[in-house]
Hints:
- The chain is of the alpha/beta class.
- 29% of the residues lie in helices and 17% in strands.
- The strands form eight sheets. A 15-stranded parallel beta sheet has the order 33-34-36-38-40-41-42-43-44-45-46-47-48-49-50. The protein has a 14-stranded mixed beta sheet with strand order 14-15-17-19-21-22-23-24-25-26-27-28-29-30. Strands 1, 2, 3, 4, 5 and 6 form a six-stranded parallel beta sheet that branches.
- Helix 3 (60-68) packs parallel to helix 4 (85-100), helix 4 (85-100) crosses helix 7 and helix 16 (363-375) crosses helix 17.
- The longest helix is centred in the first third of the chain and has 17 residues, at 164-180.
- The protein is globular and about 115 Å long.
- The two termini are 50 Å apart.
Amino acid sequence: MGDEEANSGTATGGGDYDVFLSFRGPDTRNGFTDCLYEFMSNTGIRIFRDDEELRPGEKISEILRAVKRSQIYIPIFSKDYASSKWCLRELTCMVECARQSMGKEILPIFYDVDPSDVKLETELYESALGKHEANLGCTEVKPWRAALKTVAKIRGWHIKDQKQGKAIKDISQKVSQNIAIKKRDLPVDLIGIDDRIEAIEKLLDSDISDVRFVIIHGIGGIGKTSLAKAVFNRLSPQFEGHSFLSNIRESSSGGGVTKLQRKLVSDLFSFSLLETFDFEEGNNMIKKRLPTKRVLLVFDDMDENDQVLQLAMKSYLCGPGSRIIFTTRDKSVSTKTKLEGLEKKILMGSTKVFLYEMKELHFDHALQLFNKLAFNTDVAPCDLDLSREVVELTGGLPLALEVIGSHLRTMDKAKWKSTLKKLKEVPLEKVQQSLKISYDALGYEAQQIFLDIACFFVDKKITNAMYLWEACDLFPEVEIVVLINKSLIKIDHDRIWMHDRLRDFGRAIVRQENIGKPGERSRLGFIKTALDVVRARKGTENVIALALWRSRHDFTREDFTNLMNVRFLELDGGNFAGNFEEILPELRWLCWRNCPPKLRANNFVLNHLVVLKLSGHITAEEWSGWAEIMVASKLKVLKIAGSKSLMKTPCFPELTSLERLVLKDFPRLTQIDSSIGKLERLIYLKIKWCPRLGGLPWDIGHLTALRELILIQCFSVRALPRSICNLRGLSRLVMEDTGLVGLPDSIKGQADLEYLCLANCTSLDSLPDEVGELKSLTELDLSGTTIKELPHSIWNRKDLTLRLNSSKIRMQLMSDLPRLEGIEDCWDPMVPGAVSKSAPKKLKQAPHNKIRCSLEISYEALEYGAKQIFLDIACFFVNMKKTEAMYVWEACNLFSKVEIDVLVNRSLIEIVDHRIWMHDQVRDFGREIVRRETIGKFGDQSRLWHPEMAPDIIQAKRGTENVEAFTSWKLRHNYKLTPEDCANLRGARFLELDGQNLAGNFKIILPELRWLCWRNFPPKLQANNFVLNHLVVLKLSGDFTVEEWSKWVEMMVASKLKVLNLAGSKSFIKTPCFSEFMSLERLVLKDLPRLVEIGWSIGKLERLVYLKIKRCPLLRELPQEIGSLTALRELILIECCSVCYLPDSIGNLRLLSRLIVEDIGLVEIGRSIGKLERLVYLKIKRCPLLRELPQEIGSLTALRELILIECCSVCYLPDSIGNLRLLSRLIMEDTGLVEIGRSIGKLKRLVYLKIKRCPLLRELPQEIGSLTALRELILIECCSVCYLPDSIGI
Length: 1290
């Protein structure tokens, strides 16, 4: 080998090498490298090095093979090292081997170069690589560059201008120490473990001098031991002593604890205990010697063996800087309270304890591991792409992957499929044995709860289940903690989570109770099996729980005669018929979906029932049949849902034990019976989606035990009864998405209230000061509200967390901090829309003058039109809809479309959700410009925006023709504006009023007005001759009447009105005539609680492009004339719960591009919808009565987004959906979806598919694999979907 080649060389003899030396021969061979080689060889280290030249025929490939067979790599970087392509190839191979194999490491030596040279930050190595690229190309040199930069970051020896003798001694000692370590055996290919090692190392933090415990806990077979071994192998060289005690649980039996003790002493102190020493004497020896050493200890697979715990207790005596790792299935065995003396050390700060939960492998890592085991490759062969199904089956459990991968390795494709089918029903024996260890360690009660969860309660709320187990004397409060500590379950957001393999293991235990006779098993959860057993009357007294899904069957007493011990029963459809006396006497839990209106059973008394959940078309007339079930019971939980006809809740007086009551999905419910006040033990009341419910009864105040009161989507509830002050123990109050207009003053009596949610209460515009006086309140949610400012009492609360997502006040609060002043410090990054507890103080101290200079530069650079729009926004349009403001500016010839883009590009405004956002610093700067227009003569300013200033000027009649816009909402509500008040305001184009009136002759007054917004306007307009020829936007909110409409028509008859918003009238039964408004383009009808009919004249609005109707609960239908709106682009219908059908004429809206229906009583979508050829966006939300989408939906060839949310009766998508060739987003949430048709595979442009909370959906079709454009597939809380289709990998 010439000088160009790397001088790595060969060692004599076979076997692996301790060290591989990589060096540039001419630079160091006869000097430093030779000395290092001789010194290490004399200490017995086996080194691979060139003996001047390679043996005949030896190739670079053999040298690289030697690299792979070595444990430690020592590259010696000299000035010409990078000029050798052989050196660089060796180095690249070293980096790759160290990355892939645990225990291999690189120890670099920077001989006569600096690390910066190796990092390619200087010309020394960079120029050498440039020459290689010229000769060999960039592709080959690229990995060499990466390898150099990687190794340069490793801490090594920098011996440039240093004494070489001492360096050689230090290097030899380090190598000797590292190769002397007793490494733990690990699998060759460890996948997905690097991040976990890093996490453990971060917890251990070897650079800190305290003593640290890390407890790695998780289910059996999840990889705890492998992780501990990997960490041990990596860190043990850093400690004076180290010991790994393996498999303690098994080793500790039969005197094994003494052997473990002797091993610990031998590993740490290098001597053996005398045979005469007993266990206690050995512990005393450890106690005396341990404090002097910095050690790394691993106690693998800890259990509750008392002697093992005594041995582990001594570990807290380790010397400073020691690290102790426990692996365990039960995290409770090694908590700080079980380590004697440890708690005191923790309090003193000298010792820390950390828990690390071992989770299943990420899907990609699990897939890679399986492919390695089954095919010895990272990627499965294309003809055997069943790998994904296997990985889904294992749930990312490494042991299961190893067993199944090895089992399938030699099988062909046909045998794979049959084997997988079997594995779905019967888990592999080795995996079961591993999991059975944890199960066998449970007591009887915990085992029963575990099996209940595995069969019925995965992803179910734990609160209700606790009542069941408590009634069965299973002591759930104790046993649930045991299951959590043993990593058999988790509780997440009040729901029970269990690993898929544990779930299958639990179900396998039940199956093995009697494989041939299902009727002899304890739990029957499979649909077909359970139904077959009951119908064939083969059930026995062994059965304690069963689920009868899709049971369209009338059950008789004979079906259940032998099922005397059933305590849990779930049904879906069907009925009970006949005499049920003394049938199901032990039943504690009854959940009945699609229950019949009338129960046909008689004498059906369930004395022990504690949980009853009914969902179906229940009527008040037939309630007595259901009441009979409960009359003698100890019922604790009652949930009633889904009745379409129930207008008043039934009587509750007999349910004196009831603690939890849920009323849900009653579209016609208007009243809650006063007997609810007799439920003296009720602690939880939830009412959801009852859009016509007018309010809570006064008797709600008698529920003195109530802790949680939750109202969601009860749009007609506008107030809480004052009797709520009697609920002294209330800790959570939720009024989400209701019509609430205010909180009662009596709210201050809720001394224990901790959580208050008013999210999406859009009619709520203020909070009483009493809210700030709720001393226990820690969280307040105002998301989506229109509240503009917080009471002062809240600003003084340092312990209160605010949630303000999508609220008006959020914009205001955010703007109080300049973006460059660390606004993130005020907002909780983990919770969108949440303000931290320190936010109020920071907001008050926000600076206001740092950016003024740059703002003036930006403003002066604007054209006239952009300046006018900028000042309008600063004074009036912040957080208002851009679309409506654009009409005003267009009418004033300000070329708004162009100028808005200019303002956005200059960062003076932003458009967020179609609203105009401006930073408060920028807003104040704009208002300051207006203020400086005429200092001292406010009546000459162009815009009177200040709430105090404008009314004074108007009343003093000091306004001039310079005034272009003003607001007088601070004027007295009963004040009457006269012609004299406004006579000089001839140039005004923008006016806002709140509650005042106009009186007198207003001829030629406000002739240039374009915008009029009038809140709380009077029923009768007292002005006459008030004609606004140029008005384009009119927004009226108040209790106006149809009879007085003529006055308003007079105002607008000659106008060019483009936008009309009518809201808040309590007397409107029918809309007024719209015939005169031929220029109208946008119409909004909102908050009209008595509106029953929309007049036919709406069809005359030929230019209407936008129609929105919201919160009109009594509106029965849209008129057929709606089909005459041929220019309509958007139709929005929200919270109109009496509208059951869309008119057939909707098919005439050929230009309609967006259709939104939310919270309405929609029963059917007509076939004419298929004519909407330009419909791009279709959203249907909270329409529980809607049963299906018509086949004509497939004719919407322009549709790009289809959203279906909370439509619980929709079970299928029409086959024609495959015709929507342009569809890119499909969202289905909270539906009754049972099946997704095969035609979905035709949606070639579908990019985003989300399916959430569709519990009846059992599978995704194989055609899902044809969605070649799909980028996001989201499947959440679809508990019946067990597998993803094979085609998903295509």
